[in-house]
Each structure stands twice: as structure tokens, then as C-alpha cells.
Amino acid sequence: MSGYRDLVKHLRGLADIRAILAGMRTLAMIETQRLTRLRDSGQRLRAGLEQAAQFYRAHYSGRALSTGADISVVIGSEKGLCGDFNEELLRYVRALPAQPTLVLVGNKLIAAAGDLPQVVARCPGAPAADGVAIVLAELADTLGGLDTARGGRLMVIAHDPELRQVSARQVLPLPTVAAPLTGTPARLYMSVPEFEAALVEQYLFAALTGALQNALLAENQQRVTHLEAAVRRLDERCALLQQRMRKARQEQIIEEVEVAISISEMASGAVSP
Predict the structure, then answer these.
(1) Are 139 and 123 a contacting pair, CB within 8 Å?
(2) What is the mean pLDDT of residues 226-234?
């Protein structure tokens, strides 16, 4: 009797856990859809800024537009339940031939990295799409406070939601002109240094916003996959428990029948002359 009751209690507990995981999976799927829409509009903005930068450089400047930063921003997860999301990022970073200066984004990534010597700054990540703007402001302050006078590149290392793998993308300097542009140069109504600074600022804002959104999209994609696998394992476990529960119930019924027969035989013997 107690074995059957224990199985029923265990099965109810697993059903409650499954309901929670299924709800979290649904929330991750909704967040994925939101981020996909945001990413599409952000890509159009960045493409326009890159085209403006190429047009400007073709007619006004041969220099690379860069803040002089030599830093790699690694964007991990703020929340868990996404498999080895952060561990894959760290394996990618450790496999680089030249170890870059790192800025880590995401508390789960920060915890997994431990005391990685290349890390010079750490920022919390965005738990959802609504938190990207807050993280962007803190990341901008962090990058602005670092030594950016050495010259070099600003890279973003993160999961690519389309390739489903870790990749590195150069943010600054801006992309070079693939072929000479023709046409009449645009007339600038501000000095060249002011225009360059404004262009870099706008592009950096758009590029980092897109990088944070893409990383969050990839995180939620992996979370959906991870939670779906967990729900499947729970379903398999529940199916096995139901089989054991039915078997335990059958044994319980047989035991009750045997007890009833024994009582009936004892009662028959007691009334016999």
C-alpha cells in the first residue's frame, strides 16, 4: 500500500515540475519571437549606417573610423537553463591564438569564467528584451572608462542565432569600402572630426544593440531546446512511473483479494459445526 502511495506522490511531483518547465519554455518561445522582430529592424538600421560610413570614407577620408579600442566584448547569459551556452563561449575564447582583453556581459558567464586573467570589466546581462537598453548604457559606460588610446579593434564574441554557434564580429573599425563609390560627395554641415565622432557613436549604438539582441535571441533558442529536452525526459520518466504504479496497484488489489479470501475462509470455519 505504501509503495503505491509513494509512486502516486512522486508522479504528482514530477507533473508539477513538468508544468513549470513547460511554462518557462513557452515564455522563452515568446521572447524569441519578440527578439526576431527587433533584430530584423535593427539590421536595416545598421546596414544604412554602414552604407553612410562607406560613402563618407570614399569621398572624405581614407582612415578607419574607430575609437581606438582593442577589446573583445563576450556576451553570455544572465539566466540559466540554457545548457552549455556560456561554456561554449569560454571554450571559443580560450582557443583563440591571441588572447584578447575581455569585457564579460552576463552574470552566468561571469560566474563560469571565474578569475580569467584577460577580463578587465564585467557587466550584468539582459534577462529579457526590455532590459537591453539598460545593459547597453552600462556597457557603453564601461567601454568609455577603459583605456582606448592604443588603437586596434572592438570585437563582439557571442552566439549567432542563425549559425547556432559562437562567432566573432568586428564592430570597429567600420567595414572597409569594397569598391570605389561614384557620384557627388555629400555636403557636410559639420566639421570632419565632429561627423566622424557622431557616425561612430551612432553605429556603435546600433551595433551593440544588435549584438545584445542577437545574443539574447540565441540564448532563448538554446533555452527552448534545453527545456524541450527536459520535458521529454520528464514525460519518459512519468510513463515509466505510471507503469510501475499500475503494477503496484495490481499487486495491491491481489493482496486485498487474498486478505478478503482468508477472512472469508476463517469466518466459514468459525461457523462450521
Answers:
(1) yes
(2) 91
